[in-house]
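note to self: the first set is below, dont mix up w the second
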Amino acid sequence: MTAPEQPGQQANGRLRGRVAVVTGASQGLGVALARRLGAEGADVALLARRADRLRELASELGGSTVALPIPCDVTDPQSVRSAFQDIGERCGRIDLLVNNAAVIGMALLEEATDEAILEMVSTNLLGSMYCARAAIPLLRAAGGGHIINISSRSVELARPYLSVYSATKGGLETFSRTLAAELRPHAIRVSSIRVGPLATEPAVSTNETAAAVTQEWVARGGPAPEPPAPPESVADVVVFIATARPGARIPVVHLEPQ
């Protein structure tokens, strides 16, 4: 398999001719993923609710790749169907789906609101299911491909205030493993990437809720917060998985800080 590029290296078009879909593409990690996939030569369908931000990103990427801004609410099955129908009509296939759209909330379970629980489960778990379901026929049309689900290190680091969020990501990984077995006959591989804090997110010190939660974690004997990783490191892993040799299975990648 081709090793990921080191920071500062130039992309070399390893995904030229492929069609990639990135959800949650209007901000943060989604933007970094779209930029990298475009730099590697892929045509990129950008999915998110913020149409204005998608248009800005598509305009930025348009000089070197085909970028399609497609407004989509991943929590709405009909919105997902419409978005992937649009991709199918315009591209005819999908080679790579990156389920990146997610929301995080910090609260003790007994204090969590109905709305917060529903939003996290709908976005982080159901949204990935809806998008994978809609992508499968287009992945088959490409003769196979990849579904990459962005998970979280919270799955392995049990921390208070993150029970609902961690549960959605744990469910996402179980979904990934079973879907991989289901899609193996179609040469569609499914992987998860466990990601910790990223440099695109607000620093803990600037978020009063996060700072208070972190203090409680440490007071309870938990580990101190990990240093944030550059989002480009996640993009490195996505390209690494997407360019793996046929037959190689990469169920889970743990992306840990140095």
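second set (the one i keep forgetting abt)
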Amino acid sequence: MYLKHGLSNSPEYKVWQQLKGRCLNPNHRAYPSNGGRGVTFHEPWVNDFTAFLEHVGPRPSPKHALKRVRPDLGFEPGNVKWVAGRGYKQRQSTSKRSSPNFKHGMSKTPEYKAWVSMKNRCLNTRSPDYPRWGGAGTTTLAGTLSGSFS
């Protein structure tokens, strides 16, 4: 049973839909850099927009976006907040340097590039190589794809 909340045209509802797609839908264009990297979306929010809205509150302005406080955690209570566009970009660039997801220092190595390419062709349905790899049933070790190197 679905309850009507009357907010399906609200900016908050659109953000909720986008975040779910990025984290849960392998066909979403942003999935490889979100859900494909292990970014999660709080399970109770998946089918309950009102619970999501209760926690995040209304968007302060059109210039605000919902962002994670700690990049190593998912979209969950206590780890999301509305942030104004310009300020977010500045904080994002500094948080990447201190985030556990970016401290391995190997992102420019041939091994890392090969790993990213393997992930892309095996998991990203939009990759031109996907039909010959992931689409043909090629899999990789789960730990290899979900590690903190993404």
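remember for set 2: The beta strands are 64-68, 80-84.
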